[in-house]
Amino acid sequence: MAHKELAFGGKLLRDLLTSGAVELAHAVVDRLAANLPVYRALPAEELSGDIVTVAKRCIRQFADVLHDGALPEPGDLAELRESAARRAEEGVPLDAVLSAYHLGIRVCLDLVVPHAEPADLPAVIETQRLTLEYLRLVAAAVSAGYFDVRGEEQEARQSLFSVLLDGGDAEQVATRSGLRLPAGYLVLGLGVGVHPDERREGIDRSVAARRKVRRLRNALERATPERVLATLSPDGGIALLATKTATEPTPQEWTALGELVARLAKAAGTDVLAAAVPARPAGVQEAATLAGELRAVAYAFGMRSGLYRLDDLTVEYQLTRPGPARDRLAAQLDPVRDKPELLGTLRAYVSSGLNRRATATGLHVHPNTVDYRLRKVAALTGLDTTRPAEVLRVRAALAALDATVHGVG
Where is the PucR C-terminal helix-turn-helix domain (predicted)? Predict the structure, then answer.
């Protein structure tokens, strides 16, 4: 028997739901934020973006079900399944995700039920039946998407990633898993700053951090046709970008990689620092160690974003290697180590390119004060910045001190 278009009070339910679908979607999201604490703690950008989009899709789909009497096919629920996977990555509990769909349907029913009249009882009963059937399919799709975040392919890639970092037989693991090893990798040691949402009052910081990581991972995935192997946390991680050759990247390729790091920072919404080392698959373990060391060196020298190679940090890297020479250099600054006005002035003077006026401006003091402090430093440490031959030693002593303080090397 053909399905009769459902109507309450002579008004088609589909028309009631879809005529103001955008406003209704926002009403659904407002109800979610009001009734489900985990949704209330999501960043506003996510609520007004991804969550509203999914709500609109669900409203229109539910309206079609009530109009046609035909339940959606599994493929029609793909968007809901993908949305559930994103919530899983962000750590939103499954019960909250399922509650969100039930609450959303409740908002839809609250809109149409007041139009029902006594003569509409058969339509009300049919609406109830279709609602329960639709929610059953939605719950199944959402649950499947939630638990599908780590599929077989992802497990295989994670195994390959672990073997590469451990220096094991990556070729054997790749063959067994049906994967193909590239000629080489660019090993990125990533450092990621704190997103503003992670500091915002009333926002679930763990959700904001996981959302940042998801955006970062998505940006990495878009960077290359090959799947990126990576382990990421809110403060950074290691990523392997497949390359077609195992040779040193060209200047153009380094430029492109620098642009990628800038896109990662934009996607993450905060600073992203990347230390990059090229390697063959068999050399990934050693390259990852070096990338981690370069990242630590960059941080120790006050760098917070951008792309860095060993060529960019050769002096800083060498000065941070442990040994008696580094210890002697750092020890030269011991007399001013606990005198922040002297040590700070010395740092500012060196950073300004030995410009006393720029140093004075940056420190909000008179240039004569800068001169006085630098003379005090010279008297206490023997490091005289007025002598050109001493400037390199001053820089080296500061680098050695920073490496010692930050535990680099």
Answer: 342-400
